[in-house]
Design a protein that fits this description.
Helices cover 30% and strands 33% of the residues. It has 217 residues and is α+β, with helices and mostly antiparallel strands. The chain has two domains: 173 residues, Sandwich (Jelly Rolls), CATH 2.60.120.620; 40 residues.
């Protein structure tokens, strides 16, 4: 499985989040990085004052929950609260891989999938591409505001240096109810085929029987 792009936030939601970020305190992004990633990370992120979700967190999480394509791709079981990040000129996040587990105690999440929701219009900044190390070579990703890329958290990746403007994004991680990414990919394709076939009985049976085998609720 490589990656998928989904339209997650509409224009009004993007505008409300960006407006809300103007009233938040940004701190050094290294506070949530560990090990080699800490040395590679040079950005800013919104300071989190407590464990309760903010209005901006809730907006992002609600948008992910309502997106049927994302749900059928990720089978989310647990979702981290988003990190709202900011890259200004000269900032970047060098090559790294995400930690296998994030959070602590009951809030810990096995990071099966990583999500970056772009919040800045691509014309307003230069650089800042999300670069994924994929079997077919490096893939540079720069999406419209409100679009999200979802990719395996096992992927080595970086955020290229921003040279002009300001790059805002919301980043989060998913623990999937289908832990095997090969089975997730098959289920996603099978579900799409079932939709296109008009809920064919045999395809529907195969999809749900495979899901019963694969899912861990």
């Amino acid at each position: 499985m490589n990656f998928q792009v989904f339209p997650i936030l509409d224009r009004g939601e993007v505008d409300r989040i960006v407006a809300g970020l103007r009233h938040r305190t940004f701190v050094d992004g290294k506070v949530t990085a560990a090990g080699a990633a800490r040395e590679a990370k040079n950005n800013l992120q919104v300071e989190r004052s407590g464990p309760d979700p903010t209005d901006l967190d809730q907006m992002v999480q609600a948008a992910l929950r309502r997106n049927k394509d994302f749900q059928s791709f990720a089978f989310p079981k647990r979702l981290m609260m988003p990190i709202f990040s900011c890259y200004e000129p000269g900032m970047q996040y060098g090559w790294h891989v995400d930690n296998a587990v994030m959070g602590t105690g009951n809030d810990s999440v096995r990071t099966d999938l990583a999500i970056t929701i772009f919040l800045s219009d691509p014309a307003t900044y230069t650089g800042g591409e999300l670069v994924l190390e994929m079997p077919m070579g490096e893939q540079e990703i720069k999406l419209d505001a409100g679009e999200a890329i979802v990719y395996p958290a096992t992927t080595v990746h970086q955020v290229a240096p921003v040279t002009q403007g300001r790059r805002l994004a919301a980043v989060t991680w998913v623990q999937s109810a289908v832990s095997d990414e090969r089975l997730r990919a098959i289920l996603f394709d099978l579900g799409k085929a079932n939709e296109q076939a008009g809920a064919n009985t045999l395809l529907n049976k195969s999809y749900h029987n495979l899901l019963r085998y694969a899912i861990d609720l």
